[in-house]
Fold these 4 entries.
Entry 1:
Amino acid sequence: MKIAGLDIGTTGCKCTVFDDQGKYLAKACRDYPVTRAVTGHEIDAAAIMDAVYASIREMAEKYPDIAGIGVTSFGETFVCVDEAGNPLHPAMLYTDPRGQEECQELIEKLGGHNIAHITGLRPHEMYSISKMMWIKKHCPEIYASTRRILLMGDYVVYHLTGKAQIDYSLATRTMAFDIKNLCWSRDIFEAADIDSNLMSEPVPSGTIAGVITQKSAQMTGLSTDTKIVSVSHDQVAAAVGAGAFDGTVAVDGAGTVECLTPIYDELPDIDVMYEGYFSVVPYVIPGKYVAYAFSYTGGALMQWCVETIAKEEKKLAGEQGISVNEYLEKMYDGLHHEEPSGLLVLPHFAGAATPYMDTGSKGAVLGLTTATTAADIYRGCMEGVVYEMYLNLQALKHSGIHFQKLHATGGGAHSAVWMQMKADMLNLPMTALKTADAGTVGSAMLTGVAIGLFSDLADAAAHMVEETVTYVPRKEMHERYQKIYERYRQVYHAVRPLM
């Protein structure tokens, strides 16, 4: 018997298969295009479904005894569908600028703090409800033809099983879900003039939707006994896959986006969260919540540096048979050992996320000289991302956090240099986990529990979460970084008025 995690991302999906002991076996990935223009950022929901069928089919050919598949996905993006589940329009991504006026309309009707106390979210046009309002106002014929409104996770589950259900954490990303009563908010849907009956049924994370339909079985090669599980929003799945189940542990997701995910053992102070635009999301364990503190550019900033600044170094790294990231780290260490770079890098290359949520902010590199090397800039970018996380940590201080360590996932967790830098700067132990795909691991863990393979999440974690190295903070380095941080936290306010 096998279990699988299906992770639906903004540019591609992956289906990862594990055996009955939770051991990784294989994965299949498929990409799909995103369309970006000044007036809209869109994705084709039908293309996502095609990619899902293809990735599952590749795995089912190798492992026909897959007993359960858990579905996790990125948030916010939804699609209106007809009676047969066919998309009626291109789906708007969270970065799509449409919905700003509608979001302001909701604020004027209900009040920003009131919305936050209901939904756990400070109002912003990135969330689904504002964009639903935009469609109804500007494309009334689409809204009139709509029989269901589905986010990408429940869209996939619906096509695989015929059941329209959405887990609490993904439902939260609509900005129309009551996180205390765990149901759609009548007040918000009435103010938005959207029919809440079009939405999927909210269920706890890790709820079985049913077995796969005959049609989907033919499309994928799976048995009609295969169970499909509604897992969660991808960041919640990553927290589960990192083995973080209470407030003593937080998760550092070092992927394309850098995301710090603390866990709260009770509802945090919403007013504190409001000030920093921090989301409050129901966790997989009843009564617990998570929050997202993030920078749009984590690993993406390293990638920008490699592709734009370090082209020659990339070539030399290839000749040595090592990654360009490792090459740049060694190059810097050979010149400066562990000295801070002397640069101040504002990592807002794709806008500012928490605690500012300022899409107009831009990146900046301060302190350049004619002696600055590509390795210096690379190191400065690493530092800038971590300073931004420390800034978020300070903004969260009075919200009720009490974590004593961090579990690190994603590709960045494999960099010993970056992990030690984070431990030093944040002044917390950082434990790197073996897997880079914590989201699919978490999805498979919840699937294993749902179908009875594991007795509970602790049992699943014992089988599937593997710690590698723990990096301990060094007092003298923390103090050195602190002095630089005092300058870093002024950079945004100094640079932003010039943009």
Entry 2:
Amino acid sequence: MPVPSRHPVPARPDARPALWSRGFVLACLANIMMFFNVHFLLSTVAGYTVARFAVGDAVGGAVAAVFILGTLVSRVLAGPLIERFGSRPLLLIGFAAFVAAPLLYWASGSVWALLGVRAVHGLAFGVSSSVIAGAAVNRLPASRLSEGTSHYSSSTLIGVAAGPMIGLALAGSAGAGVGGGFGPVAVIASAVSLAGLVTAWFMDVRPHPAAPAASATAAVTAPTTEPTPVPEDAPRPGWARFVEPGAAATAAVAALYSLGYAGVVAFLATLAAERGFGAVASLFFAVYAATVLVSRLFTGRLMDRRGANVVMLPAFLLFAAGLAAIAAADQVWVLLVAAVLVGLGYGQLLSAGQVICVTRVPRQKAGMGASTYFLGIDVGMGLGPLLAGAFVQWWGTAGMFWVLAGFILVLVPVYWLAQGRALHAEVRS
């Protein structure tokens, strides 16, 4: 009988490292709970404020918007805070704030107190979400970084979609969000956040050690298309404490294409009312979310193999086509086709942009890269409704969507000059 070899059988060169590690799964779960909390409350807090304190819609909108202001401030300060206090304490404190904040909304005795709590809640969100993003990226193998980041972005989408859906259903069925009926909303939000706090307790947020070098055979058979990050010992400007330089260009472009989606969020209901689509138009966001989730099953792997441009460039065109379809929609089915196009467009821009921002920075700066990227998204989503409102006054709702479609097309050469050209050169080399 042959004697078994004492040497282990070498792994196949084409074997892929595991993606769904314990740490990555926990980070995705924590992310879902955090974004669920944010958008669950965002969908109900304005109505609650108007009913509880007998104020106008403008004040209710201000209570909803002040959260974004707190988030913007904390995204700028995330880097110095993480360096000063460490990732784990900030993550746990952030989730503790998420547990307390909804109950404090319910207990607030004045609009000013509610505004203060919302601002602090936004501060906690900006820092905590940056820590979770960094922890998720640091758990991913280098050869599957784009695919893993795409799945992580999908966890964000699950929270963003589930929060408003459940919040609005609860408000409509039980009067939650109106006066004293806000209690169920506050309790559910705090309970979900408590589950997030428990999840965060078991998360490992430390930088992941560098992956071992691939074998010579693997290096030949599987050339990488991963963008080359900025060297860790490269000189860094003073403002790099607040904004990650390697992610700044992509974040700036993200702020611009998020203006288009902000217009959809702010004025799709207006267009639907003008054209008599009724409540069926609410399916737009369900179709959008489903399209994004399905498409991200493939785009992550595609970016790992061929670089981010293979997703980014078509996504600009698809997003512009989706906005044009909204402007031209005269039947509900056209609006739903537009939802698919926007999902394939803006949904993939969101994911691919985040991939670029976390792969072009040193691995231990992944959280800062993600924070810088979402700072750009927040700026675009904050300014978008204001600019879109001005366009509506000048050209009407449909005209505004036509303008946004043209604007997204103009961003194609802007993206190419700011980021795409460099990524193309790296893939070619």
Entry 3:
Amino acid sequence: MVAVTDWNPSALVPLTDVEPAIALGPLDGRYRPVAAPLVDHLSEPALNRARLHVEVEWFIHLCSTDAVPGVRALTGDEVALLRSIPATFGADEIAEHAEIEKVTVHDVKAIEYFIKRRLEGTSLAGLSELVHFACTSEDINNLSYALMVKGAVEQVWTPAAESLVADIAALARSSKGAPMLSRTHGQTATPTTLGKEIAVLAHRLERQLARVRGQEFLGKINGATGTFGAHTAAVPGTDWIQVSRTFVEGLGLTWNPLTTQIESHDWQAELYADVARFGRVLHNLATDVWTYISLGYFAQAAAKGSIGSSAMPHKINPIRFENAEANLEISAALFDTLGATLVTSRLQRDLTDSTSQRNIGVAFGHSLLAIDNVRRGLKTLTVNEATLAADLDASWEVLAEPIQSAMRAAAIAGVAGMGDPYERLKDLTRGQVIDAEAIQRFVGSLPLPAETASRLAALTPGSYVGLAEQLVDDYLR
């Protein structure tokens, strides 16, 4: 008998030497195709590209506003040269910036030197000290992050979330007339329709989306402690507040006039709370749909060749909804941490926000992955109306509520013999197996007005759905 070998990864082929590089995290490995659209917005190279954009636009703004005496207007070719710097920031440029940073040990200063290299030997060489003029690193960083997050939210996350909500709304509309037994506290309860319940979740998600769409993205450019100290010391005659405001607003951001060295990040905390809340509502949908699948209300279509269980061939597991649950929990935890961390900075500045913000892409990545999984899961579902109907037909006790309510109304109208309606229905139904015959017999024993008696006699669990369909038609966007 051969002994089991001890597991010792350090004695195996080093995976760190494998090319292309093996990702440590799943978003850059297994789930890369789904998370990839965020790379252009929230990766480290995207951060440095955004920094380049802010730096060159500040250079152009200083020239176009005559903020610094003696600075001439730029030619069209010079503006194009400057804007080509972030536009052409690719693999070679990423490596070059990294080499500069090895020397500076400062990523933003490396950006400044990177730009100055590209001005050497050009007509802009004499103006190179305008690069990073009167700026602290956080002037560049806060604007870069605001642009990055704004782009990720508006161009990637929101379109994906909107498509998801549209899919959920479509399912709600298509199943609005499918009667379903409710389960409050896990017990049989007043029937509804499957579509109305799905519509509730679509409506909730749309409300959170509206909050995200209305988000402000704030920015500042006011120096090392937010006082425009260096600006006014160097050029006291310029209206630096106006120059700052027009620059930030020109970037498509909301200007924040009162800050320390950092922009306070409150807008980020607000946004992340809304995105996390969207995720928590989506988590509710995932667990509800999972439960409906387990009850047989939804059937799942299996992809050709797919395996549900390695041991049980019959199974089609609701893995898309389970995967979504886990990723939403990870995403919400990260967003909660970001929101809690970013709103606090010791005195005028500490660096806790620097590392924290580098994880923004991870939080959005797990959220995007969950959205993708739910959309894919929804596409496999079909409504099993036979199971819904059988469940309702086995639950005639739910008609105790409308009968006792009709008895109350009749009593108020002066009909005799309607006393203690709740107690009488409780005695009839609680702990009892109730069928159609028992309900009909009870209704027939009541001295109800003919119209009321006829209406109750015709009622079934499947028809007792109130205004469920109308609510979907009238209020689901």
Entry 4:
Amino acid sequence: MANVVVIDAPPVPDTRRVSAAVAAAGVSSFALLYAPQPVLPQLAAAFRLDPGSASLAIGVATGSLAVAVLPLAWLAGLVGRRRVILWSVVLSAAIGLLLPLAPSFPVLLVMRAVQGVAIAGFAGVAAAYLADVVGTVRLAGAVGAMIAGNSVGGMLGRLGAGFAAGPMGWHGALLTVAGVSGLCALYAARTLPQAGDPMAEHTAEGVAGQKDAGKRLGAGLVAPFAVGALAMGAFVALYNAAGFRLTAPPLSLTPAAASLVFLSYAMGTASSAAAGRVAGRLGRSKALVAALLVTVAGSVLTLSTSLPLLAAGFAVLTAGFFAAHAIANAWVTAEAAPHARGRAAGVYTLCYYLGSGAGGTVGSIVYGHAGWTWLIALTSVWLLLAIVAVLVRRRSSTRMSAPDPVTETCHR
């Protein structure tokens, strides 16, 4: 009988522990990214700014994140994804603690730009890190926990800053969020296990695949890229201006009460989870158009001066936006060639955050000069342009009699 050589397999990490660590990093990163949003009126008053200028506190961070996400994803392949994630969460939390000390608004913007670059280290690397650590079989659950952490972080950062702004001012609000984010970052730093070989994607086969990936990112992905940029721009523009609208007459809410609008993110968490099932029944294009129309309908509801109707409008538009984001993201993953998926996802993230930075700033300028009604008109045009991009792509696909990749994926 031949001798059997047993090779010890590497230990399989506890998926729940890994997921909790990455979720904590997501809470830290996205709480810091959006913490200034509910205190934009206070920043405007403190530095004598109009709404458009104040919104740069969000725009420069999301813009620098967008620019840095692809280079940092490449760097992580060289030095290790865990190392990039750890530097990301620690550095972004440290900058958050220093933000309240900014002596002027330009200095604050520079610090926010650096913080956005730091956060890009997590945003551009986390999903690939999870694939390295837990493998493809358990990846869906781990990524779900990461997205939940991102969503919860964005909501808690906004709520925490909004409630702290009343008694503590914008300085105390940002400091409070940074303190909680720092604790989450420390937990992630102590818990994240080592990933696999960081050089794996730089083998000859991997490099060849990456070169082939660039050739395969064609016109078929223009529509989801457009949805990511235009829908995110509209979404951030509305939430940037929400604090100004809710704290001004005739509503005149306190900052804490106004920040409750961010509870609408719970609707987004539910709708993004359901989006895949809807796309499986209706098809990718129809489901995406429906989600974008829901976003438009919700934004129109916010024209009301009735607080219940306005709150309902934010809940509806948030549900529609997150569903559209989930479907567009799935479109990119399904249609890109296997070797191109990483790069396609990176380009989608780039478009998403460029839309956030540019759209949020332009929308805030329009609100400051023309008011909420014109802001709704502008963002509705952006959303309708996204719908046109989807319909044009659908018509082109129908002419070529191509199957719907996302629909096929959902039925498998």
